[in-house]
């Protein structure tokens, strides 16, 4: 039984991205997973928008480390350009890695920011990724 999904199960399938999607990236630094970034860009057929972009986007990729500041504030801020139905893919260093963020902290911050954790994906050897979607009021 295979433990990890084959890379060709495509980042597009794992992160529900498609060619033509607009994706904005926050928290870029020299420690990000360059291979993962390239796979995302290949899936959407363009480069990721940087933090300064004001375009409405289909998804946000947020690299977050313990010590980066207030996660709640950042999650609120990254939603300003997110289209209805868009999601935030929060990447944090995996357990045991420097600057790891606990899942409980992610859950608490997401809830306070009006989001909820809906799933996780195995897309990087060094980074955990959580899918955060806006809470729906029924």
From TrEMBL:
Protein name per UniProt: DUF3052 domain-containing protein
Database matches in InterPro entries: DUF3052
Pfam entry (one): DUF3052
